[in-house]
């Protein structure tokens, strides 16, 4: 291979880094645009998947709403049927309540009439009782007056009889014997009359018992009160007739007694003992009659008391009936109120079901519109996706073409640089020429996992094969700025040592920078590539410098922070081609490169 002339090599060396930087920046921009497009494509894919899930969820919600709508329609039909049944029941209850109310009102009116009739009857009975009591008192007064007169006459008769009896006691003994039989006959007649009076009393007792039975029948049956009232009036009239007959009988008895007294007064002068016996008999009869009169009075009082008690019981029964009717009316009203409340609840439930049905219909329409809009959005997204896929494919093809062009330019520039620098170094260091370099491999456009694995394997191999920096020389680094020294002749051994140390330091310094380069896996860097990377590294400046005080000593940095100083030396190349050592601005890990902030990788 022919070596290029020196001016052309210098111009190529000056123009090639600028062109290379421009190409690298353009490749970085295109890679950034490609990465953005890929991120956009992934985001669009995710959005499309989210929209598909939302559409599926909307379809599921629509199906659930349709099923709920069907169930609500069925419930509405059942509620309508139930409401119709309840309305029929309510109408039946209203009719039954109206009939029962009319019946209760009729019964109440009948009970009020019966109560008024009973009150009138009670007033009439009270008037009759008062009249009977006044008549009884008049009879008692008459009987007391007659008894007083009879007692006065009896005393006079006794006195006269005693006077006459002392005179004609013995004369009348025979007459007394004759009259004894006559008195016996009169006693038998009087006993018969007393038996008749007892029979009459029994008949009165039977009439009273019949009256009590009739009153009991009146208490048991209020609806037959008029007939019972008539019967009671008939019984009272019978009782009054019986009492009148008793009064007539007593009057007849008094008349017969007066006649008998007159007869005895006419015959008592001769028959004192007979009169005394007759007086005793009459006294006993009078006592019996008085007892019967008192008994009749007591029975009349008892009858009046029973009548009052019967009236009170009837009144209580009527009040209880009225209270029961009021309670039934209240219960009927409560039933009607509950029926009205249930009807209102059914109407409210029907209105709520109608509102829910309308809301479900509206929601169904909204969901249908949403599904249609989602379908349209999905169609637009599919079209956008296809368009972006075509654009991404076109951009990928353009980027791959640019990458291939960049690799071709890079390989040409590297070849030219390598040739020029190698000729210069060969002229300086080696008297014999070097063999030509091997051809560079063509870069592959597509990046994959295999390429990254191969790149990592190459970096590991380069790291294992590269020696440590600073082992070539143990000379102390100079802290004063180096002066421009003229090149001096060196022996062949020294030149070889310098070239070996330069190669090691270049491999050490460019290892971190080569790690961040993009592209297909490469073999270990060539000397021309090492020179280019070295020129790149030369443009970087340390962030801070300090004067070393010796290995393993403490030094002060910044605001008083003390740290362990490790004198790590890096080998750099000056313009004259000589090697020198300068202290590292900060301790760094082996296998990495120091890069100032903001510098491109």
TrEMBL record:
* Coiled-coil regions, chain positions: 20-75, 194-370
The source's domain of life comes to: Eukaryota
Region (Disordered), start-end ranges:
428-496, 540-601
- Give residue spans, biased composition: Pro residues: 432-444
Instruction: Quote the biased-composition stretches of kind Basic residues, using this chain's numbering.
Output: 452-477, 570-592
Swiss-Prot/TrEMBL keywords? Coiled coil
- This protein's name: Uncharacterized protein
Q: Source species, please?
A: Trypanosoma conorhini
Question: From which lineage does this chain's organism come?
Answer: Eukaryota, Discoba, Euglenozoa, Kinetoplastea, Metakinetoplastina
């Amino acid at each position: 291979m022919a070596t290029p002339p020196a001016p052309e090599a210098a111009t190529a060396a000056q123009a090639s880094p600028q062109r290379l930087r421009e190409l690298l920046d353009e490749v970085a921009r295109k890679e950034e645009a490609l990465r953005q497009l890929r991120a956009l494509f992934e985001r669009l894919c995710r959005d499309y998947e989210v929209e598909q899930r939302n559409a599926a969820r909307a379809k599921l919600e629509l199906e659930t709403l349709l099923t709920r709508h069907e169930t609500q329609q069925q419930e509405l039909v059942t509620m309508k049927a139930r409401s119709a049944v309840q309305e029929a029941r309510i109408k039946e209850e209203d009719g039954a309540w109206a009939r029962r109310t009319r019946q209760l009102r009729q019964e109440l009116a009948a009970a009020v009439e019966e109560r008024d009739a009973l009150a009138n009857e009670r007033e009439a009975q009270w008037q009759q009782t008062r009249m009977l009591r006044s008549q009884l008192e008049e009879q008692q007064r008459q009987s007391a007056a007659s008894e007083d007169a009879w007692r006065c006459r009896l005393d006079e008769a006794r006195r006269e009889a005693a006077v006459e009896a002392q005179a004609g006691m013995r004369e009348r003994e025979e007459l007394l014997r004759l009259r004894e039989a006559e008195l016996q006959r009169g006693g038998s007649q009087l006993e018969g009359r007393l038996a008749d009076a007892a029979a009459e009393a029994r008949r009165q007792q039977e009439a009273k018992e019949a009256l009590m039975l009739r009153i009991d029948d009146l208490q048991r049956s209020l609806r037959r009160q008029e007939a019972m009232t008539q019967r009671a009036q008939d019984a009272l009239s019978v009782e009054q007739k019986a009492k009148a007959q008793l009064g007539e009988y007593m009057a007849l008895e008094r008349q017969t007694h007066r006649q008998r007294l007159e007869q005895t007064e006419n015959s008592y002068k001769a028959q004192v003992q007979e009169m005394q016996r007759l007086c005793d008999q009459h006294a006993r009869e009078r006592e019996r009659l008085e007892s019967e009169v008192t008994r009749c009075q007591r029975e009349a009082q008892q009858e009046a008391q029973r009548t009052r008690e019967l009236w009170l019981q009837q009144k209580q029964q009527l009040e209880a009936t009225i209270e029961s009717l009021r309670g039934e009316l209240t219960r009927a009203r409560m039933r009607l109120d509950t029926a009205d409340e249930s009807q209102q609840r059914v109407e409210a439930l029907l209105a709520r079901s109608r509102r829910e049905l309308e809301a479900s219909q509206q929601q169904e329409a909204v969901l249908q519109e949403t599904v249609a809009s989602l379908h349209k959005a999905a169609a637009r997204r599919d079209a956008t996706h296809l368009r972006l896929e075509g654009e991404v494919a076109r951009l990928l093809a353009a980027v791959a073409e640019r990458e291939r062009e960049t690799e071709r330019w890079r390989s040409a520039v590297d070849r030219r640089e390598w040739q020029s620098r190698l000729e210069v170094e060969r002229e300086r260091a080696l008297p014999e020429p070097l063999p030509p370099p091997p051809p560079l491999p063509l870069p592959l456009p597509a990046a994959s996992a295999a390429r990254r694995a191969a790149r990592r394997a190459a970096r590991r191999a380069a790291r294992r094969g590269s020696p440590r920096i600073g082992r070539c020389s143990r000379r102390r680094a100079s802290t004063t700025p180096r002066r421009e020294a003229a090149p001096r002749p060196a022996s062949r051994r020294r030149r070889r040592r310098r070239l070996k140390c330069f190669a090691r330091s270049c491999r050490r310094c460019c290892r971190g920078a080569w790690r961040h380069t993009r592209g297909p896996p490469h073999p270990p860097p060539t000397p021309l590539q090492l020179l280019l990377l070295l020129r790149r590294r030369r443009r970087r400046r340390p962030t801070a410098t300090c004067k070393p005080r010796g290995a393993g000593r403490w030094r002060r940095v910044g605001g008083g922070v003390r740290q362990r100083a490790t004198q790590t030396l890096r080998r750099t190349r000056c313009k004259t081609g000589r090697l020198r050592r300068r202290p590292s601005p900060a301790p760094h890990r082996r296998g990495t490169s120091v890069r100032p902030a903001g510098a491109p990788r």
